[in-house]
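Late entry, evening session. Most of the bench is empty. Finally got around to the prediction I had been postponing all week. Sequence below, unchanged from the version circulated by S.P.
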Amino acid sequence: MTPLDLAYEAMAAAPEGEDAPRLRFYERLADGEMILLLEREAEGEVLAPRIFELKDGPVVLVFDTEERLGAFTGVPAPYAALPGRVIARQLAGQGIGLGVNLGVAPSSLLLPAFAVDWLAETLDHEPEEAEAVPERFEPPKGLPETLVTGLDAKLARAGGLAGQALLAAVVYRGGRRGHMLAFVDAVAGAEAALARAAAEALTFSGIEAGEMDVAFLAGTEPAVRAMAAVALRFDLPVPVAEAPPAPQPPGMDPERPPKLR
């Protein structure tokens, strides 16, 4: 059983109308490395997914392990390992569905093209900028466990982008209340990626009309000391120094997404 299998089973077992398990499945699909079946070997940054014409429209196939790809094809086949979010973004708007682990796993599922488009649109949602002056911080309260675990998982993959993150309830000047996630000593240029990670954790937690403010603070600021006294703390892992990486396969460089043809 893989994380995607477990998320699928939780979704299938959920009562009708309960959105949180469905959203967690989509989050696992987006965050996981997926094995995309290709028509032929990659040519530089250009990938040619194998397209299957079904009665409900064309689909491409992905698997969450190489073994499951092999179980489907039965023979060696060309493939590319890509984050699920990259695949969804590249397929968006093309009217192509996504077959996930078809026939080889408990998480066998066929996502129609509109579901692929929805996932890509959700992942591309940008947080809105705003200004407000906090007056005091309080312990976080009323937050669902799905949001806390989602943040923990997202931030575990953001090692090295900030020293830590603090989550607390906040009262702003004027009386507005909410919650604030503050990244402490964020690396210059990492703010947008960290804000998107926080926004995705909120979106996929299933909170209706949920809101969480994100701030970036230096460790020397008084607000950090005030938050630390009451906040839930997330420590971002420190990257381990490794040998120089080998050349990346097509599509793994986020600054150079692959072209699917």
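Two things to note before I forget:
Residues 49 and 172 are 50 Å apart (CA to CA).
The chain has eight helices and 13 strands.
Will write this up properly tomorrow.
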